[in-house]
Design goal:
Radius of gyration: 16 Å
Distance between the termini: 32 Å
Strand order of the largest sheet: 1-2
Largest sheet: 2 strands, parallel
Length: about 70
């Protein structure tokens, strides 16, 4: 997501960030707007908020391999 946030930052547009708070491993993206950077304690909460704010949602329950198998049948 850094590339998308950096592109928006370079264009002067605000960019939103959803970060998970881990004790020693992850910091918020440097290119997302500080006022639009949200921190979550749990992965499930982060996914729920991403899904709530999305205009579209694609679900791949078996991963991207499932998509590959689906299209190979046609």
């Amino acid at each position: 997501m850094e590339a998308a946030n950096r592109g928006a930052s370079d264009a002067g547009a605000p960019s939103i960030g959803f970060n998970i708070t881990l004790p020693t491993e992850q910091q918020p993206n440097a290119y997302s707007a500080p006022e639009l950077t949200f921190r979550f304690h749990y992965f499930a909460t982060r996914k729920m908020h991403l899904a709530m704010r999305a205009n579209a949602l694609a679900v791949f329950p078996g991963g991207f391999g499932t998509l590959d198998e689906f299209f190979s049948r046609f």
